[in-house]
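Hi U.,

Before I forget, here's the chain from the pilot set. I'm dumping it here mostly so it's searchable later in email.
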Amino acid sequence: MVLLPLLVPLWRRRGARSSKLEAFADPPLLQRLLSGETQRPLRSLALLIAWTLAALAAAGPYWQPDAAAPGEQRGADIAVIVDISPSMAAADIGPTRLQRAKRELRDFTALLGNDRVALVAFSANAYSVLPLTADHDAFLRCVDLLDPGLTALPGSNLARALEVSDQLLSSSAKDSRAIVLLSDGEYHDPDTLAAARRLNADRIPLFAIGVGTDSGAPVPDSDGHFIQYQGRVVISHLDRIQLQTLAKAGQGAYFDLRDDDSE
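Structure:
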């Protein structure tokens, strides 16, 4: 298995296609990861993700909904949305907002019982990274690979992420499903609030965890400099009000990310 990363370039040159790999990853995201358009600093990361997905496919984790064994109590189905837009690389919460969100999800997963989780990532677009699964280790492996550099365009299409999550939970039992969002709240899509209201209509509560601080921090670019606008360094702030409004529309709740797991 450790030799797989060395075989990926050969596999790409020969134009091979793995049906299993495509089954477990969102096709647009997979195409981006394996595309020749990927920037040079991200190629090793793309190969690592391709190898990880291939290993998961070969291992055959619990991707499909499975009937509960006799006497076993099925838990909730939870779609987790992670913001991977450029502002999540800000370091007002160390080491970065995204890294802290990953730590939070590791603590969160440790509290799960028979619950199943799915993973959605969003920036300028939204991607179904992992369908519902009871394999929490597979979920955490995919979480660890999330990075703002995975998408070519900046942006924050949270409305689409909510729609994708709604679709992932469409076959789950009503009143036994939820969406957990980790974001700094910096989105500007007017359709986002309407998407949260549709979740409420589908009886899927939305719980939002704000990642960042009121004072904020500059946003690094892919070259290691800070993003500027009209000659000034852009400072990204936690937009708590937007996230609170979304959570209220989705009949859920809002929490600030904390060190003590109280959220």
